[in-house]
Design goal:
The chain has about 550 residues and is mainly α. The chain is about 75% helix and about 0% strand. It folds into two domains: about 240 residues, MetI-like (MetI-like fold, Orthogonal Bundle), CATH 1.10.3720; about 280 residues, MetI-like fold.
Length: about 550
C-alpha cells in the first residue's frame, strides 16, 4: 500500500495536465457564436479539402509503414538470427533515426535531394546527369517518413524473430525443407500478427508526423491533415473551432489504428507464449560475414552518417553551391550574433532541464500510485500518463493553444513548458515503471512495518535503487524536450523563442546554411548539458548500480 500523499497529488496533477487540454479541445470544437454547435464537425465532414487530405494522409502513412516493416524485417532477422563483426553497428544504425530530431533529419534529406540546389543534384549536374532526385514528391515524402518509422518497426521485428520457435524450424529441416523455406513457412506465419501490429504502430506514427510533413509536404503543396491543422492555427486561415474539430478527427483516426494494433499485439503475445524454444544464432563467416558487414556499413552511412554530415557540410557552404575550397564559418558567426537564435538556445536548455525535473517529479510518485497501490485513481492516472503516446507534438500544441488562449499563460514559455511536460511524460512514466519493477515490494512493506512513512521510503529505499533509471529518463526527456519542434511551432514566438521554433523559422526563410550551423551548435549544446545525466548513467551501468 502506497502511503505517500505526494503520489496522490502527482497523479491528480497528471490527470489534470493531460485531461484539461483534451477537454478544452473538445469543448472548443463544439462552441460557436450562438453556443454549442456541431457546425465545425459538419463543415469538415462535408469538406472536399479534408477528404483529399485524409486520403493523402492515409495512403502515405500506409505506404510508409509497409516500407518501414519491409526494410526492418531483413535487418532484424540478420541481427536476431546471426552473429557477425558488424552486428552491433547494424543494430545502432537501425534505431539511429530515433536518436535524431525528425525535423533535422528531414531537412538533411532536403539538402541532399532538393531539385534545385541539393548536394546530390549539384554533383549529378556536374556529371551531366541533370537533376534526377526530387524529395518534394509523394515518393520522397514516403521514403523519408519510412526512414523515421524504421526504428519502431525494427525493434518490434527483432523481438519477434528473437522469440520465434527453433524446434519447429528444426522439424521442418528434418523433413527436408531448406532453411529459407523453413523460415518462410514456419516462423514468418507465426510472426505475422506481430508484424501487423508493428505496421499499425508505424501507421499511427506516420499519420501524425508533422516533423517530416511540415518540411516536405508543405513546400510541395501536398496537403495532409497535420499541415491543415498547422496552417489553420499558425496563419489564422481556419477558425479555432474548425482547427479543434480537425485535430480531434486525426486523434480518432490514430486511436482507431492503435486499438487495432493492440488486438494484433495480444495475438502476437499469445503466440509467443506457446513457442517451445528460442532460436540459435548462426555465426557467419567468409563471404556471408562480409555481405552482412556491408549491409551494416550501408545502413550506418544512409541512416546515421548522411544526415549529420549533410547538415554539417551545408553549414560551411552557401545554399545553391558547393565548393570545398571555399568553406567558411560565417554561418556560425551569424547564428551566434542574432539575439533571437541565441535566446532560443538558452530557452531550450532551460525548457529541457525544467521538463526533465518536472517529468520525473510527477512520473515517479504517479507510477508508485499506479503499480504499488489499490487507489481508485490508479487507472485514470495510468491512462493519462501514457495517453500522449498516441498524440503528435503538433496536436498536443494545438490542444494547449486552444485551451489556454485566453489565460495569462498564453504567449509565455510556461505554456510551452506545460506542453513539453505533457509530451514527454510517458518516457519518464515508463522509466519509473521499469525502475519500480526492479525493486521488490517487500522492501517497502518492511519499511512501513518499521514505522517509516511514504516519503522516507521513497528517499531512503527507492531513490538509491532507481538512480540509473532516473538518470536515463532525465537524459532522454532533456534531449527530447530540447529538440522538440512540433509543439514549439505553435506555442513559441518572438521574445520566447525555442530551438525548434528557430529551426522551423530558418527553414521557412530558406536559410539552410544558418540552419545547418544552428543544428550543429544545438546538438553540441544539448549533449553537453545532458552530460551529467549520461555520466551518472554510465557510472551506474559500470558499477552495477540500480539493478
Amino acid at each position: 500500500m502506497n502511503r505517500d500523499p505526494r503520489a496522490t497529488g502527482a497523479a491528480c496533477f497528471v490527470v489534470a495536465l493531460i485531461g484539461a487540454p483534451a477537454a478544452g479541445l473538445f469543448l472548443r470544437s463544439l462552441r460557436g457564436d450562438g453556443g454549442l454547435t456541431a457546425a465545425h464537425w459538419l463543415a469538415w465532414l462535408a469538406s472536399s479539402e479534408l477528404g483529399a487530405a485524409l486520403w493523402r494522409t492515409a495512403w502515405i502513412s500506409a505506404a510508409s509503414a509497409a516500407l518501414a516493416v519491409a526494410a526492418a524485417c531483413p535487418l532484424a532477422l540478420l541481427v536476431a538470427r546471426s552473429r557477425f563483426p558488424g552486428r552491433a553497428l547494424l543494430r545502432v544504425s537501425a534505431v539511429g533515426p530515433a536518436l535524431m530530431s525528425q525535423t533535422l533529419a528531414a531537412i538533411a534529406w532536403v539538402v541532399l535531394a532538393d531539385p534545385g540546389a541539393g548536394l546530390l543534384n549539384l554533383a549529378a549536374r556536374r556529371s551531366g546527369l541533370g537533376s534526377p532526385l526530387n524529395v518534394f514528391t509523394p515518393c520522397g515524402l514516403v521514403l523519408v517518413t519510412a526512414a523515421m518509422c524504421l526504428p519502431t518497426a525494427y525493434l518490434l521485428a527483432e523481438a519477434l524473430f528473437g522469440a520465434s520457435s527453433a524446434e519447429l524450424e528444426d522439424a521442418a529441416r528434418v523433413c527436408g525443407a531448406p532453411a529459407a523455406r523453413a523460415w518462410l513457412t514456419v516462423s514468418l506465419p507465426e510472426a505475422l500478427p506481430g508484424l501487423a501490429a508493428a505496421g499499425l504502430l508505424c501507421f499511427c506514427e506516420a499519420a501524425v508526423m508533422f516533423s517530416v510533413q511540415g518540411v516536405i509536404a508543405l513546400p510541395a503543396n501536398l496537403q495532409t491533415v497535420t499541415t491543415l491543422v498547422y496552417t489553420g492555427l499558425s496563419l489564422g486561415l481556419t477558425d479555432p473551432g474548425d482547427a479543434a474539430a480537425l485535430s480531434l478527427l486525426l486523434m480518432l483516426l490514430t486511436l482507431g489504428a492503435l486499438a487495432a494494433q493492440q488486438v494484433f499485439s495480444a495475438r502476437a503475445a499469445a503466440s509467443m507464449r506457446t513457442r517451445p524454444g528460442a532460436p540459435r544464432p548462426a555465426r557467419l563467416t567468409g563471404a556471408r560475414a562480409a555481405a552482412a558487414c556491408g549491409v551494416a556499413l550501408a545502413a550506418a552511412a544512409g541512416l546515421l552518417v548522411a544526415p549529420v554530415a549533410t547538415l554539417a557540410a551545408r553549414s560551411l557552404s552557401a545554399w545553391g553551391a558547393w565548393n570545398p575550397g571555399a568553406l567558411t564559418l560565417d554561418a556560425y558567426r551569424r547564428v551566434l550574433a542574432e539575439p533571437e537564435l541565441r535566446r532560443g538556445l538558452f530557452h531550450s536548455l532551460f525548457l529541457g532541464a525544467a521538463c526533465a525535473g518536472a517529468c520525473w517529479w510527477l512520473a515517479f510518485p504517479a507510477a508508485r500510485l499506479v503499480f504499488r497501490s489499490s487507489s481508485p485513481l490508479r487507472r485514470g492516472a495510468h491512462a493519462a500518463a501514457v495517453a500522449p503516446l498516441g498524440w503528435s507534438g503538433l496536436l498536443l500544441g494545438a490542444a494547449f493553444l486552444v485551451s489556454f488562449a485566453r489565460t495569462p499563460l498564453y504567449g509565455t514559455l510556461w505554456l510551452l513548458l506545460l506542453a513539453l511536460v505533457a509530451r514527454e511524460l510517458p518516457i519518464a512514466f515508463k522509466s519509473a515503471q521499469a525502475g519500480l519493477a526492479g525493486v521488490p515490494s517487500e522492501l517497502e512493506a518492511q519499511a512501513y512495518v518499521c514505522g517509516a512513512d511514504g516519503r522516507t521510503v521513497a528517499r531512503s529505499i527507492l531513490a538509491p535503487l532507481t538512480r540509473a533509471v532516473r538518470a536515463a529518463a532525465a537524459a532522454a526527456v532533456f534531449l527530447a524536450a530540447f529538440r522538440e519542434i512540433e509543439a514549439s511551432s505553435l506555442l513559441a514566438g518572438h521574445g520566447y523563442e525555442s530551438f525548434g521554433y528557430n529551426v522551423f523559422g530558418l527553414l521557412q526563410a530558406g536559410r539552410y546554411q544558418e540552419l545547418g550551423a544552428l543544428a550543429v551548435i544545438g546538438s553540441a549544446a544539448s549533449l553537453a548539458a545532458a552530460a551529467p545525466f549520461l555520466r551518472e548513467l554510465g557510472a551506474e551501468a559500470f558499477t552495477g548500480g540500480g539493478s
